[in-house]
Structures are given as structure tokens and as C-alpha cells.
Amino acid sequence: MQVIMAENAGFCYGVDRAVKKVYKELDNHPLYTYGPIIHNRQVVEALEKKGVTIIHSIEELDQHEPGTIIIRSHGIPKQDYEEIEKRGYTIVDATCPYVKRIHQIVAKCKGNGNILIIGNKDHPEVRGILGWCDNQAMVVQTTEEIDRLHLPKDEPLGIVVQTTFNRMNYKKLIEKIQKKGYDVDIYDTICSATEEIQTEAYKLAQQVDKMIVIGGKHSSNTQKLFNICQSQCENTYHIETLDDLELNVFNEDDIIGITAGASTPKNIIEEVYINVRNTARI
């Protein structure tokens, strides 16, 4: 059995930066995060044990004593910043710089034609982006949704994309939009780290018999990574931790690839890798 670990896997810059900001603030009480700091259950539970409380909505702020609140890497709508400050909380902003750039772009585009966001309308990053253009944007993630677009072709159309969006799907959507003849201003805002992880995973999945993708069950970027790998390797497994992995599904002559989403801590990745590799030696 051969085990190949992807070089680009696990915490991206934005996630690593956000988690470090929480640990830096642990001496400040009360301490909150606005939503789970990342989509990884193990990290979130570890922080809760250290006294970090998750606040899920503006309304919930009124149920707690004001303290320090950390904005997660996904970012939040502009109005939410204002509401949090009104209630006397001290904000520590851990919004990923790549996401911040999108906020600035849509704020600039607002009032100058139409805005199109390529991404998942239910993802917190996209909800945050919408809040920086007063919800004056359309969100699409499929070619069918683009077919239903009927926008004035004599008005500018600014396009941004969710940082974790699948690069190959993004290209297909952009080609479809361009064929409709709109006056487009395209901002390629896919995170470079996300693209590197996805590209390497795509190539690795072509070379192996079985593929393991490590990451939170509610992590958008991990789910996209799983879909990419599964498209190239039918026997692809999505796990959160080693506990989810059935080691007996591997054969002694298998070539196994391992990658991980941007919200997966290094220690979890290493534990899976070491155990799979040790199995290969038995």
C-alpha cells in the first residue's frame, strides 16, 4: 500500500489567522465569536472549553453581557458591524483579507449597474458580501440560474465569486454569462490557496485507487474538495477525524491519496496520515 499526502492541505491563511486571533484574546472575558470561528467541530469545541461563546445572530447579542466579539473569516454584513457596536461589544475583525476585498468591490459597484455574485446564497461568506452592497446583487451558482438572468445589456454588470468556489465550475459560468452579451466587469476573487488545494487534489485523485478528504461536514470548501476528488476517483471518502475512517476498506495493493479542507487542523491531518500509513505496513 502506498499513501500520498497532498502538499497543499489544511488551514489556509484566512482560517489560520482567525483561529490565532481567538487564542490571542482568550484572556479577555467575556469572549465571543460571531458564528463558529471555522467550520470544524473539533476546533470549535476546544475553544468552547476555554470559555469562548458562539453568538449566532444580532438578536442573541442582547442575551449576553457585552464583551469582545471576534468576526470569523467568512465576514459579516456591514449592518451587523453597526448593530454589534451599538450594543457595546468590542469587535476583533478576523475577516479573511480575500473576503474583505470582495466587500470593497461590491461596495464600489453598488449604484453603478448590476452586481452578480457567483456562489452559494446560503453560505455565510455570500450573505456577508450581500450586506456590503445593500443586498442589491443577484447570486447564482448553476448554469440554469444564469439562463434565467434577464438583465439590461446596456448597463454594467460587476461579477465577483465566493472565495471557495470550484474553479472549473466558475469558468463554465463565466463563459455562459459572456455569451449572453452583457457588459461585464469580472473580478476573479477565488482564493489562491483554495485553488491550489483543489488543483492538487484533482490531479492526485487521478493517480490513486482511493482518496481520503478530511474536513468538517458543514465546511463548504471541504464539500467542494470531496466533489472534485470523487469526480476523478470513485472511491473517495469524506471524514472529519480518524474515527470516521474504516481502515479495513483499504487493500494492501492500494494507492491512497489524502487531502484536507481549509478548516482542518494539522494535528487531525497528521493523525489520519500516520494511521493509514501504519496500516500499510501491517
Characteristics:
single chain, 11 helices, 41% helix, alpha/beta, Cobalt-precorrin-4 Transmethylase, domain 1, 282 residues, flat, Rossmann fold, 3 domains, four-stranded parallel β-sheet, 12 strands
**How many domains, as an integer?**
3
Helix-strand string: EHEHEHEHEHEHEHEHEHEHEEH
CATH topology of the largest domain: Cobalt-precorrin-4 Transmethylase, domain 1
Total number of helices: 11
CATH class type of the largest domain: Alpha Beta
At CATH level 2, the architecture of the largest domain is 3-Layer(aba) Sandwich
Multimeric state: single chain
Distance between the termini: 10 Å
**Major beta sheet, specifics?**
4 strands, parallel
Low-confidence stretches: none
| Category from helices, strands and their pairing | alpha/beta
Shape call? flat
Strand order of the largest sheet: 1-12-10-11
Averaged pLDDT: 93
CATH H-level homologous superfamily name of the largest domain: 4-hydroxy-3-methylbut-2-enyl diphosphate reductase, catalytic domain
Number of strands: 12
Helix fraction by DSSP (H/I, runs of at least 4): 40-55%
Strand content: 15-25%
Gyration radius from CA atoms, angstroms:
21 Å
